[in-house]
Amino acid sequence: MKGSSDNRYIVFLGAPGAGKGTQAAGVAQTLGLGYIATGDMFRQAMEMDTPLALQAKSYLGKGALVPDEITIPMVLENISAPKFKGGVVFDGFPRNLKQAEALDKALAEQGKAINKVVYLKVLEAELLKRLGGRWVCRQCQTPYHAVDSPPKVKGKCDKCGGELYQRPDDTVETIKKRLEVYFAETASLIDYYAKAGKLYEVDGTGGVDEVGERIAVLLKGL
Ligand code: AMP
């Protein structure tokens, strides 16, 4: 791996509702790194009614993974963009072994590698509670929670004033399916990165700042 201060690649792993989006975006901002959130990319594409949107819509609606043939090239095309040269924080990618291997290979071809994988661990009962009350800004994707982290003004984003909405895949049925998919496909990545000596487990329970502190400690010096 090349000098880590030039190329920093951090993956956030965790079940839906573990707080990956909030924490990963915060880390990207603090460290001045690019931020790739595949869920956000699909949702943005869907707003624009592109051909990708039509394909993605059916999978997101069911809580299933978008096929690797669509997802992997979408991410790999992005990581070589100039704005991501210094490094990237990945949120929601990789989500299965094939994606993880494709990412490792693409980075290795550029003489780079993932530095650290942050695994946010939260118990299932807490995940269900969080996902049930989640509201997201339509413009900047900042997440809120009706009870734990409500916006200052109901229905409006504190950061950009955008409209808050409940993700269509945050329904009870789809949440269940997304958790199933996580345990069937994504959880195996915990082993994959542990074997590579890159996995760092973080307790994801507690407030956003509290969890952020734990992550800051383990990314110190990166
Ligand atoms: P998220 O915002 O990360 O919870 O992702 C929302 C939805 O987008 C998921 O339930 C999948 O349908 C799709 N998605 C996001 N990331 C990926 C990925 N890496 N591979 C396949 N599908 C994905």
What is the end-to-end distance?
A: 13 Å
Query: Major β-sheet, in short?
Result: 5 strands, parallel
Helix content percent band: 40-55%
**What percent strand?**
15-25%
Elements, N to C (H/E): EHEHHHEHEHEEEHHEH
Mean pLDDT over the full residue set = 92
Bound molecules: adenosine monophosphate
Would you count the extended β strands for me?
8
Give the strand order of the largest sheet, numbering strands 1, 2, ... along the chain: 2-3-1-4-8
Q: And the CATH topology?
A: Rossmann fold
How many helices? The count is 9
Please supply descriptive tags for the structure shown above:
222 residues; alpha/beta; Rossmann fold; five-stranded parallel sheet; three-stranded antiparallel sheet; 9 helices; 8 strands; binds adenosine monophosphate
